[in-house]
Design a protein that fits this description.
Length: about 140
């Protein structure tokens, strides 16, 4: 009995949700208005910034309308390209990536040579101090 009651409440909520969306998609204006509204919502839907109800409305329209589906695919592709270019910039991929690697390797080599030179000098000073003190 409880399951039937939950199903009935779910159906009533669905009907209420449809009534909420009717002002956004007037039947007398036609399908063009729905496409215009959905195209405004597609970038938000692609980013995952829509509510569940709005997302289901957009998804249903995209499934039914080929033009809006093409627009959705282009928005997703553009967003993916933008993320990839940001990632490439963050990783240093591009025209100066090779130069940056060479600079890092040179810095490491200079640091190594400097460290070895300092150790040799410290060792020589200790040797000189120890041998001089024994005289």
């Amino acid at each position: 009995m409880k399951a039937e009651k939950i199903i009935a409440i779910g159906k009533e909520l669905k009907k209420a949700a449809r009534k909420l969306f009717l002002p956004f998609v007037p039947r007398e204006v036609g399908e063009g208005m729905a496409c215009e509204v959905v195209r405004d919502l597609i970038p938000l839907y692609a980013d995952g910034a829509t509510s569940e109800m709005t997302g289901s409305f957009v998804r249903a329209h995209i499934d039914a309308c080929g033009e809006c589906a093409d627009f959705f695919r282009s928005v997703v592709a553009a967003a993916r390209e933008k993320r990839m270019s940001r990632r490439a910039q963050r990783l240093g991929v591009g025209g100066f990536a090779g130069i940056a690697g060479k600079i890092r390797r040179r810095r490491a080599a200079y640091a190594s040579v400097t460290t070895v030179a300092l150790l040799v000098l410290v060792g020589l000073n200790i040797y000189a101090f120890l041998t001089r003190g024994g005289r």
